[in-house]
Structures are given as C-alpha cells and as structure tokens.
C-alpha cells in the first residue's frame, strides 16, 4: 500500500468473510487507517487505533458517510451480504445485497475511491433461473459499469468457517469440506470450498496489488484458484 493510499473502507466487517478482511488489513505492514462501517459496535477485543469504527444503525445512511471519512479511503472492500432468512424475504435481501451494495459503490466512486474489492460468489450468472445467483451476477455487472480504475471481484466457492446463523444443508457441506481438507491437506477442497481466512487474505492481497500499481487497471476476477494462490503462501511472502 503506497503512502498516498493510507486509508481503506470496509463494509460487512462483522460477517464471516468481512471479519477476516478486517483482520488481514490490521496485519498490513503499512498500517493503513481502516474505516469499518457497521450497524453495531465491533466485537471484542477492542480494535487497534488504526481501526476507526463508523457505527450507524440505519444502513440506508451509509452511502452518505463516505465524504466525511478522514483520511479519505482510496480502496473500498465490500463483504456486505445477508440471507433471505435474516432479511425476511428475497426482496428485503436484494435491498441489501444488491441495492445497498451498489449505492455504496457509487458513493465510493464519487468520493475518489480508486480500488474497489467485492466479495461475490462462484457459479453466478445473469441467466440463472434462481434469484440469488442471478442477483449476485447482476451486481457484478453493475459494479463493472461504474468503471473504477481497479475493480476486483473475488469469487469463492463454499465458505468454510464458523457461521453463527448456519443452515443445516450448509453446515453439512462445511463439515464434509473440513473433513476432506484434513484428509487431503486441502487439495480435495480447494476447487469447491475455501477457508474464510484465506478468502479474506486474498481480498486484501489483491487490493494491495492494485493500490501498489502491481496490476493493470481494469476488472480483475479472482477465482477460487487465485484465492488459494493469493491468500496462501504468496500473501505471506508479500508482507
């Protein structure tokens, strides 16, 4: 991260992947200011001074916060998302996963953010007959249309990690993935499931490459293979 990019912003910082992005950002040697936007206070233990918690219970007000962030962020990470069960309906889920994400991205672009990193998902398509993967793909396309100098879309498979709101089917798949990883030293699972800490490091690593001028401008799709590469040994070597 260059001296001119001494601040980043993050939404979704209390979630499964977002909390790992926050942890990875805190480990960056340049110690950037991290504007962590959330509906509630960050979990204990208290974060270091480099983390500035921006707490606003009304998420519809979040886009309006960007111009007031000091120092202004040049990179923005979004791990924002919910489930239909938590939201109460697919329409309510879309209001967060699509509408709020897009509003935040627009506000970030207008405020001068140059690198945008989105946590999306593998296997999504605008032609999908299923509403969730179709929505995720539509968001990707909308974000690309904003023309950030650097757009990074991270597309993991199944998220392997402890989730407080785990559903039975997902929990079963995670259990299988963890078991396969123990037996195979991860090679059986890397192609369809990734540990959330690896995903978090990959998102931060890819963002840093962009802010440091190590990637050409444009859209960079970070697929599951690249998540393992960037979030693994390559990430440790870059610190």
Written account of the structure:
By secondary structure, the chain is of the alpha/beta class. Helix content is 40%, strand content 17%. It has a seven-stranded parallel β-sheet, sandwiched between helices. Strand 5 (115-119), helix 4 and strand 6 (150-154) form a beta-alpha-beta unit. The protein is globular, with a radius of gyration of 17 Å. The termini are close together. Mean pLDDT is 87; it is low at 163-185.
**Low-confidence parts lasting 5 or more residues at pLDDT below 50?**
163-185
Helix content: 40-55%
Query: In what order do the strands lie side by side in the largest sheet?
Result: 3-2-1-4-5-6-9
| Helix and strand run | EHEEEHHEHEEHEHEHH
How would the global form be characterised?
globular
End-to-end Cα distance, whole Å, is 10 Å
Q: What is the mean predicted local confidence, pLDDT?
A: 87
Which sheet architecture does the biggest sheet show?
7 strands, parallel
